[in-house]
Design goal:
11% of the residues lie in helices and 35% in strands. With 202 residues, the chain is mainly β. It has one domain: Electron Transport, Fmn-binding Protein, Chain A (Pnp Oxidase, Chain A, Roll), CATH 2.30.110. The strands form four sheets. A seven-stranded antiparallel sheet has the order 3-2-6-9-10-5-4, with helices on one face. The chain has a three-stranded antiparallel sheet with strand order 1-13-14, with no helix packed on it. A two-stranded antiparallel sheet has the order 7-8. The radius of gyration is 18 Å and the shape is globular. The protein starts with 15 loop residues before the first helix and ends in a 13-residue tail after the last strand.
Length: 202
């Protein structure tokens, strides 16, 4: 089949997210100017540069009480910092709990019964049980085409790795099986990996 998005796809559900898969999940923790903590997952997330290390995520919807966006972006606008927590398979249910349309006063750490730890380089909390976490400072918020579509870019200022998942000096992702987003309501876990050597590399 072929379709132009402006004309619709004619299928029971939009296939776009099912085509661009798997997508890593950025479990973004933020703290508002009032000191309240927030935690929410974003599947439009990725790393975008090595030096300095930088990441991005996109928010694509809004809440009535957050001026055209959601709690995460609203908090980042106020404080300029956030943490990307990596979601292991073991944390899938807690992550799903934090994805709800909760009031801005709701602390999702408490709702999902997650312990929080203070970040080292920024004023923000992170998920204690996360196998890895990236402390970030905001570099730019880009307004994308379409209602409520905002791209958030940040520079990584601190990196946390659970030592249990380091094997011979390398991060073994199969030890914690990171969760990834597919289309529709579907997810997957990374449980095996293989290596390829690029042409010209030894």
């Amino acid at each position: 089949m072929f379709y132009e998005p402006k004309d619709g796809h004619g299928l029971p559900h939009n296939p776009f997210n099912a085509i661009v898969t798997p997508r890593p999940i950025g479990w973004i923790s933020t703290r508002g100017a009032d000191g309240s903590d927030n935690l929410a997952p974003y599947s439009f997330f990725n790393a975008v540069a090595y030096t300095p290390p930088q990441v991005m995520f996109a928010s694509t919807s809004a809440k009535p009480d957050r001026d055209g966006t959601k709690d995460t972006v609203a908090n980042i606008r106020e404080t300029g910092v956030f943490v990307v927590n990596i979601v292991s398979f073991a944390l899938k249910d807690a992550m799903n709990t934090t994805s709800g349309p909760w009031d801005k006063e709701q602390d999702e750490f408490a709702l999902a019964q997650l312990d929080k730890v203070q970040a080292e380089t920024i004023n923000c909390a992170r998920v204690a049980a996360s196998p890895a976490a990236l402390e970030c400072t905001l570099t730019e918020i880009v307004t994308l085409r379409g209602a409520h579509n905002l791209l958030v870019l940040g520079e990584v200022t601190g990196v946390h790795i659970d030592d249990r998942h380091l094997n011979d000096g390398m991060l073994d992702i199969t030890a914690f099986q990171p969760l990834a987003r597919l289309g529709y309501k579907d997810y997957t876990q990374v449980s095996e990996a293989f290596s390829l050597t690029r042409p010209g590399e030894s």
